[in-house]
Amino acid sequence: MPKLSHRSRAVAAVTAAVVLGAAGCDVLGGGGPGESDARERPKPSASPVPVWDSSPASLAAVGDSITRGFDACSVLSDCPEVSWATGDSGEVKSLAVRLLGAAKAATHSWNYAVSGARMADLPAQMAQAAARKPALVTVMAGANDACRASAEAMTPVSDFRSEFEESLRTLRRTAPAAQVYVASVPNLKRLWSQGRTNVLGKQVWKLGICPSMLGDADALDAAANLRRETVQQRVEDYNTVLKEVCAKDPRCRFDGGAVYEFRFGTDQLSHWDWFHPSKDGQARLAEIAYREVTARRA
Predict the structure, then answer these.
(1) Which helix (H) or strand (E) holds 189?
(2) Rounded distance, CA 162 to CA 100, Å?
(3) Which residues contact residue 131 at a Cβ distance below 8 angstroms, ignoring those fewer than 6 apart?
(4) What Gene3D superfamilies does the record point to (predicted)?
């Protein structure tokens, strides 16, 4: 090839530089800092607004006898003032008091739970709660679906699921932005294990408290053990339903089995029936609920 003159080589070098510059490339093969890169670079997305508010301004409770404080103050009677969810007792410091303060809790919390209620009763309770347009609704239900006259009479899991789904739909129709805290069903077999040590408690059980689990409390034969295991499995199935249904609603938070796992001791059980939570037990439920409601989750 003929040699290029000094002038020709200089022209070629300038031309190459122009071409490379137009292509936006550097000698390392990376992109240059041109305006085209700035236009193509994606803008950082805004931080998503959290769905869960850990400081709700009002609270409504639905559920059964536990939320009504049954047998916590006197035998076979409700005591809503010590309810873990909405009570005003200083001994318990309910979830409402912890979240709202005592003064605001008195005017911005409502208890629609009913002793003896089952999941089939929850849609009606939820309709009452929804009418208040609460920022948070607490749910504790399912124990009475397992506590039937016999294991065979327990609520089928499929019915339990459909009734809970209907409860959430009922809430969403009137209060679409309400948050829902769902407590797991307590470990009924553990309550039997603790309560059967008390003679008076077992006498109260004979009045009809959770016969499927507590009936013939001292019987340890194969049939009695199978009956209790059947009830216990149903409780675990109910908790699976609560977890799965709640997970489909972005404003619903299940306690992850915290109430089920809590080891109620004799101090946490009513000394009237040795089954329902005592005032101390109600306080422990309030602690669990407050921890779960205020927890930061990804």
Answers:
(1) helix 188-195
(2) 33
(3) 174
(4) SGNH hydrolase
Q: How does pLDDT run across 16-65, given as a tens digit for each residue?
A: 333 333 333 333 333 444 444 445 555 555 444 458 999 999 999 999 99
Contacts of 249 (CB under 8 A, 6+ apart): 168, 172, 180
Say what the pLDDT of residue 144 is: 98
Residue with tokens 């070629």: 12
Phi, psi of 276 (to 5 degrees): -75, 160
Q: At what angle do helices 157-174 and 222-247 cross, to 10 degrees?
A: 30
